[in-house]
Amino acid sequence: MSFNPASPVPVLQVENVTKSYGNIKALNQVSLSLNKGEFVALLGLNGAGKSTLFQLLSGLFVTDAGRIIIGGHDISLSAIPALAGMGIVFQQPTLDLSMSVLANLRFHARLHGMGSATQSRIQTELARLGLSEQARTTCVKLSGGNRRKVELARALLHEPNLLLMDEATVGLDPASRKGLVDYVHQLCINRGMGVLWATHLVDEVESAHRVVILHKGKILATGTPEDLLQLTGQTRLAEAFLHLTSQQAVLI
Ligand SMILES: Nc1ncnc2c1ncn2[C@@H]1O[C@H](COP(=O)(O)OP(=O)(O)OP(=O)(O)O)[C@@H](O)[C@H]1O
């Protein structure tokens, strides 16, 4: 089955979101939206505010101002249905390394109240990621790349409409990074899932449908990779990114 992008359906709307830590404004009036089947890259240097945005999206923190709507549900009013439609892979590993792959996935399935569908969903996701043979392996024995794949399988288990990837390739070698980006791209195409992929690595965003450049808590620019090249007059995305973040002009 392949997704038809003809009629976009927003799976995520971020409206004028502001968040401060004391005097530090980590996010300043940030707005973005993401449609079904769209791969949107959130590109920003260290300290841009990417993790802060993800913490707000995953309900760990609340906004100082603005609204976050996931699958039509305002997270501040209806957190449970909002979060139920979302999967997330955090920058920091969150598997219980003392448990098996299966036990980690079953724990997540119980949290989502998946019931009798659990076993077949686990088998499907592990098979897709080439991890069926590792199902009973204790996670501490897995390579870094395979641990990330288990985290991705866990994030996909309850079939979310929105997948958040927060610098999910940290610690992976270049081939594994590319493998993960390509796999998630296919998920967008095949399942019509929306993906927000945060990174500071430009090579991970070259195939994104849209790139949002976040810098010092503000969105500097948004558009297709081609739009950003045109906007900056550069020939490579890495140069366009450097150009935008060094100029800091508001170019939306
Ligand atoms: N708990 C906190 N307390 C105080 N300041 C914080 C806290 N978390 C983040 N910040 C500050 O907020 C700003 C945004 O940080 P954030 O971690 O969201 O950026 P990031 O884009 O995820 O960076 P990185 O790529 O390095 O992970 C930075 O100035 C950071 O120092």
UniProtKB/TrEMBL annotation:
Q: What range does the record give for the signal peptide?
A: none
Q: Which GO terms describe its molecular function?
A: ATP binding; ATP hydrolysis activity
Concerning Gene3D superfamilies, the annotation shows:
P-loop containing nucleotide triphosphate hydrolases (3.40.50.300)
| Domain ABC transporter, first and last residues per copy | 12-241
Tell me where on the tree of life, at the top rank, the source sits: Bacteria
Q: Does the keyword Nucleotide-binding apply?
A: yes
List membrane-spanning regions: none
Return any one Pfam family short name: ABC_tran
Q: Which UniProt keywords apply?
A: ATP-binding, Nodulation, Nucleotide-binding, Transport
Family membership noted in the UniProt record: Belongs to the ABC transporter superfamily.
**Could you identify this protein by its name?**
ABC transporter, ATP-binding subunit, PQQ-dependent alcohol dehydrogenase system
State the species of origin. Answer: Beggiatoa alba B18LD
Upper taxonomic lineage: Bacteria, Pseudomonadati, Pseudomonadota, Gammaproteobacteria, Thiotrichales
